[in-house]
């Protein structure tokens, strides 16, 4: 800097450059250090260079110059670098870093400098793109690192773009939602989910400061001469945070454009009491508005009036078809390896497709690359362990997790007689490897396997399993562009082994497998526009089932249903568009196309007649990979936010979705042996349109959150089935299927307290869900072709989750749930036909089982908080169903001696105490 100031003082007059242009030389360089190149020019000419050697570093150049001027050679050598040069009249060449050396002070320099001293916010003077820093400013900031960005050029531009990438210095992970503030300009930005940022700065001195919860802030003097890049590697700050059960980023719920989204941290669910003491991030999700299940012991989720098959559940980008264990009581997600869960139920990003209602995105932790760490628990039914193993320091690590159960004793304690002699067990394992190749590339790979086995009766053994694998390669092309290449494979299968007293032993199996490739890009165009775009393709392979005899005496005939295959592909694009300070839009578009593929036999039925085996007109054979049928359509994902006040916003959204795959189940609740069916010539894909509107308000610096959301959803081609439909191992399945229209609407209210001794949330949902099954054929009409409630229609749903901290180590948590009883079809009379008595049933789902309510309590004890100790412990003492409420799981009817009798079954009808010990090391 002193050398540059000296040059500016000496140059008070214009120099004649033309005479220097007449001197030409011939020289060539081959991977020569720039310093050596300058010395060679000095040897060939009378010119002498003046510079600071550190500016040139170890950079090398290559070039062949024949009869070229000094001006041309130097411009080529320093092209793309931050070095400028100035040729003096006495054959001296001065190099400068970033700056342009001017022949004279710009017009009005002293006047502008005088005015600038009166403005507190302005730290430097910029005249015709020349940057001048006052001596006082330089002295004040000697202790703050000064960074120069870009290379000065003669230009009329007054503002330049600074971009960069922010990562954790220790873990090398990107830091999202980090605030970057320019103190002297009163402007700022935040990093995106991948740690990238973009901000427009005025030329000259900008005082840049970073801030984020848990990250040490830093300050830099950034002197910007042109567009450029500045990356940050930041250290973690050690500070104790208040306990929060479910936490969003500060004011994110009010500020972002998307609505109907929820984020839950796995760590923050440890205090929420659940049955049998194990953390369950998916069960906690059902305490939030708009998400429910049909009852205890039921798998699957109903989101905003949608069926359980209308939810896309992802674990590290791979689909998991059945995310539960043990009849839905436990989640199939290891709570010690899971990082968080993000749920989209209103504004589904355009990169996701194939489901109508929601996306559950489960992300597992990255392994610690610095030191060995672990976490484990011992409970009454399960034990669990997770280890983080560094492979290469600061580069790669391996996460290993495993769980197993010893749960048979709990079944023997149930009131239900049919379950007392049952058995059930499960286990799951997970491996995740993360490797940082360099600052631009990293790879993450996950492998997961789970298996359940249970026997409800003494002669049948059921087992089902999930297997998935995914690998993601993230590459940063430049400061504006980054992308992910994802490969994922998932498989779900179940088997039934029947070993009875008769000669009808068999083994039945089912399997669905899918493989997906996705390429998605992120483009930081400006502060106004941020684009995401890409392509994806997914191949489905379904084995609808086969049955084989077991043992030489079995009389069961082997049967194998022909396999199904399909390809689903999509293009997607979204733009986060900041129209103004108040209006933010999230505009998404997806175009999906689906091909049902052979090898297959498709039946064509006579027009004007209901589908049955007797109305088949012809059977058409399709060869391997031959296209049977094609479905496609545009999907729009639009949402917007408008600030009514700084902490009060209104949002609106519209989503259109396609779903090409369906579950086959005529049970009221989800079963592990439900099968999946691909759309084909006779079964069309489901479609839905959802409209939503919401108001979001924060109080007390976002300590309190209040939201009110309403939605209306219309769908078509919803799958249902004829009464008594035979779905398993059915070659003419389309004859049992009914497809109708659906509609759902509701209102969701949430108030949440994020910090303090008392924290938690209260959620209320009013939701209705209906389906209409109408047809020109009487045998396909249900309830006279009018709308009727779905099996999961529960109008009122209230959840209260609260946690009170007596001290830093002791806390009390509670969970209260109330739900309207789900619909059921009752017999309302009987009749005699040909000497036999039969029950006469009401319209479908006209009645309801009793309402459901439950209170759970837990007392939590944390070990002392000493930093240097072998392990940190956590005790959870909980009571599930404190009130001993005998909530009915199902209501069924049995005819005995000509009399119809009603029965109800319950899963947990008494208080269930549990003690679980957790420790982390």
TrEMBL record:
Residue stretches spanning the membrane: none
One Pfam entry name: CarbopepD_reg_2
Compartment(s) where it occurs, according to its Swiss-Prot or TrEMBL record: Cell outer membrane
Topology class, membrane: Multi-pass membrane protein
One GO CC term, this protein: cell outer membrane
Keyword set includes Electron transport: no
Domain TonB-dependent receptor plug as annotated: residue spans: 277-355
InterPro entries associated with the record: Beta-barrel_TonB_sf, CarboxyPept-like_regulatory, Plug_dom, Plug_dom_sf, TonB-dep_rcpt-like
Gene Ontology biological process: siderophore transmembrane transport
GO molecular function per UniProt: siderophore uptake transmembrane transporter activity
Keyword entries, A-Z: Cell outer membrane, Membrane, Receptor, Signal, Transmembrane, Transmembrane beta strand, Transport
Family membership: Belongs to the TonB-dependent receptor family.
Protein name: TonB-dependent receptor
Record lineage: Bacteria, Pseudomonadati, Bacteroidota, Flavobacteriia, Flavobacteriales
């Amino acid at each position: 800097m002193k050398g540059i100031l000296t040059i500016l003082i000496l140059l008070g007059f214009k120099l004649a450059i033309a005479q220097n242009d007449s001197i030409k030389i011939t020289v060539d360089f081959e991977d020569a250090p720039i310093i050596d190149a300058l010395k060679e020019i000095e040897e060939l000419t009378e010119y002498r260079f003046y510079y600071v050697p550190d500016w040139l570093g170890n950079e090398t150049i290559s070039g062949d110059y024949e009869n070229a001027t000094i001006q041309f050679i130097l411009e080529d050598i320093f092209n793309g670098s931050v070095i400028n040069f100035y040729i003096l009249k006495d054959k001296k060449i001065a190099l400068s870093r970033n700056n342009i050396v001017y022949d004279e002070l710009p017009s009005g320099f002293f006047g502008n400098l005088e005015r600038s001293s009166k403005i507190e916010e302005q730290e430097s003077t910029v005249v015709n793109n020349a940057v001048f820093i006052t001596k006082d400013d330089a002295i004040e900031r000697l202790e703050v690192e000064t960074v120069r960005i870009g290379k000065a050029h003669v230009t009329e531009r007054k503002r330049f773009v600074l971009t960069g990438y922010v990562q954790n210095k220790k873990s090398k992970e990107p830091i999202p939602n980090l605030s970057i503030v320019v103190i002297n300009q009163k402007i700022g930005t935040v990093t995106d989910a991948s740690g990238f940022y973009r901000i427009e700065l005025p030329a000259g001195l900008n005082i840049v400061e970073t801030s984020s919860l848990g990250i040490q802030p830093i300050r830099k003097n950034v002197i910007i001469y042109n567009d450029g890049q500045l990356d940050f590697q930041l250290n973690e700050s050690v500070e104790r945070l208040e306990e929060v059960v479910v936490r969003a980023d500060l004011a994110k719920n009010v500020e972002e454009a998307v609505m109907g989204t929820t984020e839950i941290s796995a760590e923050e669910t440890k205090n929420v009491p659940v049955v049998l003491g194990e953390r369950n991030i998916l069960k906690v999700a059902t305490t939030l508005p708009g998400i429910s299940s049909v009852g205890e012991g039921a798998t699957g989720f109903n989101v905003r009036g949608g069926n359980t098959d209308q939810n896309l559940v992802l674990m590290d980008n791979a689909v998991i078809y059945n995310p539960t264990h043990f009849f839905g009581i436990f989640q199939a997600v290891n709570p010690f390896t899971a990082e968080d869960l993000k749920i989209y139920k209103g504004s589904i990003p355009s990169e996701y497709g194939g489901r109508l209602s929601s996306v559950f995105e489960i992300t597992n932790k990255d392994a610690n690359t610095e030191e060995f760490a672990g976490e484990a628990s011992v409970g009454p039914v399960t034990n669990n362990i997770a280890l983080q193993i560094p492979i290469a320091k600061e580069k790669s690590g391996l996460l290993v997790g495993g769980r197993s159960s010893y749960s048979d004793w709990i079944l023997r304690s149930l009131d239900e007689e049919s379950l007392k002699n049952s058995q059930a067990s499960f286990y799951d394992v997970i491996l995740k490897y993360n490797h940082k190749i360099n600052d631009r590339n990293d790879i993450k790979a996950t492998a997961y396997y789970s298996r359940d086995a249970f026997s409800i009766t003494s002669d049948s053994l059921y087992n089902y399993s999930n297997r998935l694998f995914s690998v993601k390669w993230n590459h940063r092309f430049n400061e504006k562009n980054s992308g992910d290449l994802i490969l994922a494979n998932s498989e779900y299968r179940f088997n039934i082994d029947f070993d009875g007293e008769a000669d009808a032993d068999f083994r039945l199996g089912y399997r669905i497998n899918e493989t997906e490739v996705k390429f998605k890009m992120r483009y930081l165009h400006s502060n106004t526009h941020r684009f995401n775009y890409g392509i994806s393709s997914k191949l489905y392979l379904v084995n609808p089932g086969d049955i084989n005899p077991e043992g030489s005496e079995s009389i069961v005939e082997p049967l194998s249903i022909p396999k199904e295959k399909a390809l689903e592909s999509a293009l997607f694009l979204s733009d986060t568009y900041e129209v103004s300070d108040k209006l933010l839009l999230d505009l998404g578009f997806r175009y999906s196309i689906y091909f049902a593929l052979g090898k297959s036999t498709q039946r064509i039925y006579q027009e004007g007649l209901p589908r049955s085996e007797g109305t088949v007109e012809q059977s058409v054979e399709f060869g391997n990979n031959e296209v049977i049928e094609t479905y496609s359509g545009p999907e729009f994902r639009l949402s917007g936010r408008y600030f009514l006040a700084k902490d009060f916003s209104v949002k609106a959204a519209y989503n259109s979705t396609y779903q090409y795959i369906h579950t086959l189940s005529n049970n009221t609740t989800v079963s592990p042996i439900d099968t999946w069916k691909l759309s084909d010539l006779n079964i069309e894909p489901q479609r839905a349109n959802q409209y939503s509107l919401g108001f979001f308000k924060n109080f007390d610096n976002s300590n309190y959150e209040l939201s009110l959301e309403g939605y209306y959803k219309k769908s078509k081609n919803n799958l249902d089935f004829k009464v008594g439909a035979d779905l398993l191992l059915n070659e003419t399945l389309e004859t049992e299927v009914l497809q109708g229209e659906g509609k759902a609407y509701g209102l969701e209210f949430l108030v949440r307290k994020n910090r303090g001794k008392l924290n938690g949330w209260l959620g209320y949902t009013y939701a209705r869900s209906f389906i209409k099954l109408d047809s020109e054929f009487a045998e396909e009409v249900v309830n006279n072709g009018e709308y009727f409630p779905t099996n999961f229609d529960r109008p009122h749903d209230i959840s209260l989750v609260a946690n009170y901290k007596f001290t830093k180590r002791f806390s009390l948590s509670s969970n209260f749930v109330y739900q309207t009883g789900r619909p059921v079809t009752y017999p309302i009379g009987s009749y005699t036909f040909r000497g036999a008595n039969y029950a006469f049933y009401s319209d479908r789902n006209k009645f309801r089982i009793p309402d459901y309510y439950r209170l759970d309590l837990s007392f939590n004890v944390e070990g002392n908080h000493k930093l240097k100790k072998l392990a940190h412990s956590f005790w959870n003492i909980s009571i599930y169903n404190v009130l001993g409420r005998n909530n009915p799981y199902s209501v069924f009817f049995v005819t005995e001696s000509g009399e119809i009798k009603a029965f109800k079954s319950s899963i947990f009808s008494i208080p269930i105490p549990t003690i679980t010990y957790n420790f982390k090391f």
